[in-house]
Amino acid sequence: MIWIIALVLRLALWLLLAPLFPGLINKVKAWVAGRRGPSVLQLYYDLARLWRKKVVLSTLVSPGFVIGPAVAWVALAAAALLLPLGPAGAAISFRGDVILFIYLLALARFCTAWAAMETGSAFEGMGAAREVSYAVLAEAAVMTAVLSLSIPSGSVSLVTMLTPPAWAGAVLLAAGLFTVLLAENCRVPFDDPNTHLELTMVHEVMVLDHSGPLLGVILHGASIKLLLFAVLLTEAVLPMAKLPPLAGAVVLTGGVLTVTLGIALVESMLARFAFKRVPLLLTTAFILCLFALLLAWKGGAS
Amino acid sequence: MSGTLNLLIGLAMGLNLIALGSGRLPSLIRAMSLQGVVLGLLPLVMEHGIDWRIGLVAIATIVGKGVIIPYLLRRAMRAASIESEIEPIIGYVPSLLLGAGSAIAAVALAKTLPLLPEHNGSLLVPGSIASILTGFILLIGRVKAISQVCGYLILENGIYLFGLLLIHSMPLLVEAGLLLDLTVGVFVIGIIVDRIQRAFDSLDTRKLTALRE
Fold first, then answer.
1. How many domains does chain A have?
2. Other beta carbons less than 10 A from residue A20's beta carbon
3. What is the tens place of the pLDDT at every residue in A156-203?
4. N or C: which end of chain A has fewer CB within 10 A?
5. Under an 8 A CB cutoff, do A287 and B120 touch?
6. How many CB pairs under 8 A join A and B?
7. For residue B203, what are the CA distances in angstroms to A37, B39, B160?
8. How does pLDDT run across B92-146, given as a tens digit for each residue?
């Protein structure tokens, strides 16, 4: 019984806290640009507004248009439950859960792309094609990062993998995973979340035809994904295993806030890259993770 | 001590990849010269007591590879008014992957080599092999004469790294002579680059193979 209550509480924590972080990023971006910016809680207002609206369905769409975002949202929430939260551990943990974690993220992406294709618009198909072609490269980097974490700990369970010792590869891993985070969450060097210029949109293209609660679910899912990657990055890099629970929680929160700040600063200072340069950047992320893997492998052997 | 050494060599290996991924000549030259500076610091880190000769070689390497050679290259670039885009034959992503692959292959190869026990944990041999292979990739995969010079210099950095293995027994005079040769070589190449530019209106080395009156 206690287990179920803990599960529900943790899920509520994830779902309620996640929309805060896009707001924080926007606030910091506004500060850097010298504006006041929207409230930190803006995404909550948006979600509440979208929830009250009606859904407009095109005559072309099949049920996939509705099922896609819903499945994606559930997959992301489930992935959030698998991820340990510092000293609190994970809600659900078993051997090999990291593979389920990666596949849940992939399922979420597939469903978003599927729902985008269901509209029958070539424009959204283009967005979906771009999204998945970025994902191919980003996923390789994530896989390599996961391998480099699993070799030193000798385990394939997220709880033990994400309590790394302090090692030199953490720097490489941090750089690689941060780049992946930017790519996966459609942040600036890869995609501009604010853009409405048709030819440059990636993620925004896919959700153009969604409205009302469906769009709300997509936006909320995206915010969960952002928080998911921020937590993953913090826990993969910082050696928090030996800390007492309270200090661990503080360090985790600090790490996630630092990542958020980092995203905001990157967005303020960089412009979007040309499409031609994106594979190069993602390959760099992959190579950074690969070198972390090499370091883990070599360190383990000698 | 071994930690600092490996960190510096790791940095040099990272600079290899930056050199492979950079799309403009100035950034390629910068990566190459930075690698020279990093390698120049190595003898100071390796030795316990700092000998004046070792200090001299270190300073000569840092000044030569970090200041003089990049200066000569930049001057040649300005003199021949070369535009700074590199036109790769092997694209950036494939050459990056090749570079990463060669770095991994170098680490794997160094494990199987019969090295002295004191060199076993260090990255000296992998770093040197990786730099040599990176130099080869740059030499093969870029068409402009200046970027090929950079490839050649990175290759030389790899040879220098290998030479550091023998720092106890090899007379440092050889190192110094090598450095002097290199500077003269780059100087000469600077002149040649200027000549090629005047004769062919381009630095594309592919045009050199075509016969002309």
1. 1
2. 16
3. 888 888 887 777 788 889 999 999 999 988 888 888 777 666 666 677
4. N
5. no
6. 29
7. 51, 29, 28
8. 888 989 999 998 899 888 888 887 777 777 788 889 999 999 999 998 988 877 8
